[in-house]
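User: Structure please.
Assistant: Input sequence and predicted structure:
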Amino acid sequence: MLQINLENIQEIDYRSNEAYKSIRTNIQFCGSDLKLICFTSCLPNEGKSIVSFHLAVSFAESGKKVIYLDADLRRSIMVGRFKPDQAVLGITHFLSGQNSLDEILYESNVNNLDIIFTGPVPPNPAELLSSALFGDLMKVLEQEYDYVIIDTPPLGSVIDSAIVAEQCDGVVLVIEANAISYKLAQKVKNQLQKGKIRILGAILNKVEVNSIRNTYYGRKYKKYEKEYYYKA
């Protein structure tokens, strides 16, 4: 397997780390048969790629064997964000028959975490993702890894994520706080349900900490946080 170093993996703060651990635990309680997990959003820039990547890291840190598959073939940010130390091949090279799986599979500098990047933007992303070759890839990854975390394009913009989700055990919807209307979120949810896709839940992202401090749950969490640090 090829090895690669991701240069811009930043440590997250305590609250974020605890949030990812909580999401990880909730997913694990969804059942032992849950391995292929698709992430999508309603619109671009809601943070689904970063959320799904950090969750993959969280699973890897817990000792699980994880692969992160960047299936956002239209507008991936992963290479630009994490700046791998070498040029990389991606899933579009594999699905178009140019390269084998071994040539696009990378072992990252995060223990237990492997990565498949997107590769160049193809002219036919939906067709590639709906191909038999992609289905075969999912079966191989499911056998080799404890969790397969898959980032896909926003479902409110294109159909790609619904195509991928049909191959998965469940889908998670990432929603940006104070940016997405209830009507749009329901539209995306209904679209997933029409495809009989299992919705694991939603993650509210980009929440201002100060906006929840004065709520009931904010006060309860603040009390817990003080007690935690006192005991520590």
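The chain has one domain: 2-231.
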